[in-house]
Write a structure and sequence with these properties.
The protein has about 240 residues and is an alpha+beta fold. It has two domains: about 1-125, Alpha Horseshoe (Leucine-rich Repeat Variant), CATH 1.25.10; about 135-240. Helices cover about 55% and strands about 10% of the residues. The chain is built from twelve helices and four strands; from the N terminus they run H-H-H-H-H-H-H-H-H-E-H-E-E-H-E-H. It has helices at about 1-10, 15-30, 35-40, 45-60, 65-70, 75-90, 95-110, 115-125, 135-145, 160-165, 205-220, 235-240, and strands at about 155, 170-180, 185-190, 225-235. It has a four-stranded antiparallel beta sheet. It is globular, with a radius of gyration of 20 Å.
């Protein structure tokens, strides 16, 4: 069994079909495969490591925690992002400080905060209770008017949300639109606006530039009783952490 598991681990780096089959079999084997996957991680490329992370999450064995923490130092930003999110999904003990370091490393690399890696790390820290997003009262109240499982806020309130967030010094990074139809949720293409912020600018300027672009997006956004918007925003402390 041990040699078989080792072969499956190496196959995680294979062609898509081979990798998918190995992933499924390792998940079926479950916890008995974790040690071999952890041992084999250094020999895998980025694709294999990403697939291994998927196996870790499906199996849910906390023994993979140290390996996931180690992947936060990977040269591959997607591996770092997926490892961060897996740490949160699996609620791994001791993950908060490594995630803080990973976030600070993003800041040192001047990775734009709207890229997926820092977004994933912030999400992980939030899920583990180490980060509390600023949610102004109006924004919180407008969210409450939607169904409990709604993917965001009713799009009819998008302009109010934008101004409320900016009024509380929050920088909106981007927004995702969703349509709910017959109990199913569908992503909607964005408005096509391609806007980027100058992250060397003062925070107040970033707030207002993000507000301006978001209001323009709101003017072109889809509307309807079944349309929802989920903006993503950050606080100044996300770019300038005190610790």
């Amino acid at each position: 069994m041990t040699s078989r598991i080792k072969r499956l681990v190496q196959q995680l780096d294979g062609e898509a079909g081979e990798s998918c089959d190995a992933r499924a079999e390792l998940i079926w084997i479950g916890s008995d495969a974790i040690t071999a996957i952890v041992d084999g991680l250094p020999s895998l490329g980025g694709f294999g490591q990403l697939t291994a992370i998927e196996v870790f999450e499906e199996v849910g064995d906390p023994r993979c925690g140290p390996a996931l923490i180690g992947l936060l130092d990977s040269d591959n930003p997607t591996v770092r992002e997926w490892a961060a999110m897996a740490l949160a999904n699996l609620e791994i003990d001791g993950a908060i400080e490594p995630l803080r370091r990973a976030h600070r490393a993003c800041l040192r690399r001047t990775t734009p905060p709207d890229w997926t890696e820092p977004s994933g790390i912030r999400w992980a820290l939030t899920e583990l209770g180490d980060r509390s997003p600023v949610v102004p009262p109006l924004t919180a109240r407008l969210r409450a008017t939607a169904a409990d499982d709604a993917p965001g806020w009713p799009s009819a309130h998008f302009t109010e949300i934008i101004n409320d967030l900016a009024g509380h010094a929050q920088v909106i990074l981007y927004s995702q639109f969703w349509r709910v139809d017959a109990g199913r949720t569908y992503g909607i293409s964005d408005t096509g606006l391609d806007w980027q912020l100058d992250w060397t600018a003062p925070w107040a300027r970033l707030v207002e530039e993000a507000r301006t672009w978001s209001l323009l997006e709101a003017s072109e956004a889809p509307v309807g009783d079944n349309i929802f918007v989920a903006p993503t925003w950050i606080d100044r402390t996300d770019l300038f952490p005190e610790r």
